[in-house]
Amino acid sequence: MSAAMEPSIGSGRKGLEELEAKALEIIKAHGDEGIYQHELWKTLGLDSREGSRLALRLLKKGLIRREPTVHKGRHTYKLYIAEQTRQPVSVDIKIGSVIEVPCFTCKNLERCHIGGFFDPTNCPILVNWLASKIARLKRSMSS
Ligand code: SF4
Questions:
Q1: Which of 13, 73, 80, 90 is the most buried (most CB within 10 A)?
Q2: Confidence bin at 24 (pLDDT 50/70/90)
Q3: Which of these, 126, 116, 29, lies nearest to 134 by C-alpha position?
């Protein structure tokens, strides 16, 4: 990635968060090869002072790691996404509110589609279930 981004980042905390998010996105896109920090600054439209501050913030948060290296005879750093940032995110989804939808246990689910013989837009099982949910909701709202 070499094209400079438009400096469209806002100011204040939100601006910093956006800047960090963009930086992480760019670093992540460079994968195992990493990115020279000056390339990141250039891409983000930052000077070296602003860029160094940004890198330090990301380092402190444990979102990136950096390794010293030499580029064209000059000492610099390469930036990488931290291992923990690469870990897949585990999301705990509660399905209690949707598990009773009749489609989950319907033997015709595989054959059900709009325009088909089994069609969710006119399925009596689904319509009756929805009607009972609506009636229950109305009763609870009126009491
Ligand atoms: S819409 Fe009706 S037929 Fe289709 S999967 Fe749901 S319950 Fe089954």
A1: 80
A2: very high
A3: 126
Residue nearest to atom 2 of ligand 1 (CA): 123
Give pLDDT tens digits for 34-52: 999 999 999 999 998 999 9
In a domain, 2, yes or no: no
What's the mean pLDDT in 100-123? 91
Domain extent, residue 129, equals: 91-137
Domains: count for the chain:
2
- 77 shares its domain with 128: no
> Using a 6 Å CB cutoff, which residues line ligand 1?
102-103, 106, 108-109, 112, 118, 120, 123, 125-126
Name the pairing type of β-strands 74-81 and 64-71. Answer: antiparallel
Query: What whole-number distance in Å separates Cα of residue 116 and Cα of residue 89?
Result: 37
In a domain, 34, yes or no: yes
